[in-house]
């Protein structure tokens, strides 16, 4: 990870108003909400609280832009150039964007720079490159027919995103949607709206036309709901909790049957067979898997399923690594972890920890708030052993640095335990027997499986879940399918 200088808390001038039709505008109601730095508990900006009226304004602007084809009708080469310029502008503003992300959601500045900004820029560049490389088809019909299969944009895409990787989650949706020629209305999480607003400004600077990329900050129950229910939004691309994902399916049913793609929660199983050769390396992967980004990861390795023959040793090794993941000042470039996103979220994590203790699980390390003197929301890396597979600790997504350890006897039991939640996002298996590991990989009900590794990632691979972790895939060329439709055009020759 690149070393960075300690960053001053003097923050850049944040953009705080909605970005609609190429301009920053206040919410029609004039209302605002506070963006809070979770590392201090202090408000850092007052952000426009958009509601149904603002969402309608943004959708109308997006519709105008779509219908006059100011974006979709451009030469694909020109759209590609604009998205590549946008990616480059993100890179140019790396320090400012990273600082904004860290101040707004608490993650370590080194991660914000090396991971969030880089991945967001790479994502726009990847999908920019797709603009002039995606073809339609000619169907193999009889000689007296010509049947074209055209791939067309959907129209208006509403993107609703969470706070754990605000820029990356926005990029995973906005970039393929724009590449296919759609207009976008992005509703960022209320906890972390600031980088989305700056991204929209940079997109305009890159030459993406007015009305094509709009951002409506606001509360989920106001702006998010209004977008979900809007009669002129053609599709919703949502990342967030399973609970809110259900709402978007209802909104669609109650409005215009807009299509909905859902990237939801997870409870990743990290399965370790008895024959692993390097238990130290496994322990490192487990600790990184659950404690990176304060455990605020949809794919966090929150359940360690380990063969009972090696369980005690592995638990001891993971617990020994926990201090290395102790949160620090997010602005300190050496901090391995930062603040969780809010005091409310800290409260939810601590409640889950308390309930875990009461359920009979054994607290091995952590379990408390730390750095309380800062006024910020920090949680110590926490490990529970002897977790009952049916307990809330093992079943519910905590979205914090809390590891639940469950023992098994044999890989059949491991697979049953791994598949024994409502979720199906990530899973991992570690074994010296690669054939056995791959057989387990096939039996996992999960969208992303890691064999003898964890959280490997690349923009070229599909990302998403099965079961109640949702459906549809972000990243890779497959994501383009979510933002386009097929049209068949027949000609009798
Ligand atoms: P959340 O579901 O609370 O909020 C997500 C978005 O939905 C926010 O923009 C929020 O404002 C909006 N929203 C909230 N209530 C709404 C409502 N009633 N109607 C319309 N919109 C509403 O999720 P979060 O707390 O921001 O993020 C954490 C969740 O995101 C976790 O469950 C995590 O697993 C999930 N996540 C999934 C992935 C993935 O790719 N599968 C990636 C990152 C995060």
From TrEMBL:
Aldehyde dehydrogenase domain mapped to chain residues: 25-489
This protein's UniProt keywords: Oxidation, Oxidoreductase
Enzyme kind, highest EC tier: oxidoreductase
Taxonomic superkingdom: Bacteria
Enzyme Commission number, as recorded: 1.2.1.-
Similarity comment: Belongs to the aldehyde dehydrogenase family.
Name of the molecule in the record: Aldehyde dehydrogenase
Source organism of the structure: Xanthobacter flavus
